[in-house]
Amino acid sequence: MSQPGLITIADLEISAIAGIYPHEREAPQRLLLQAEIETDFSAVRAEQGRVVAGFDYHRFAQFLEDRITSARYGLLEDLVTDVSGAALREFPEIVALTLAVRKPAAVPQTRYVEARLRVTR
Description:
The protein has 121 residues and is α+β, with helices and mostly antiparallel strands. Helix content is 27%, strand content 45%. It has one domain: GTP Cyclohydrolase I, domain 2, CATH 3.30.1130.10. It starts with a strand and ends with a strand. The mean pLDDT is 92.
């Protein structure tokens, strides 16, 4: 029997190039990622300290960091679109994914600017 579940990763902090202005292209900026991963909890199994079936959120967090830090994104919209599509290809156990990236330094008079995208299989 399927057990639809939701895993949330909140405020994963990554330093990466994200922006279109010259000063944003020179040095990495602080980004905060939020991810909501819909997956089937009935398939989850761990053995000897590692996930052998189901969704491995440690591996997913590392995937996010590796993907984002190895690229140079212009717009936050490009970042969430690219990373969400790659995540669906890399993690077949994801049923749906909502990915948001927050950029605290985008507009000085705000806490952050956020781009959010939901993708499904």
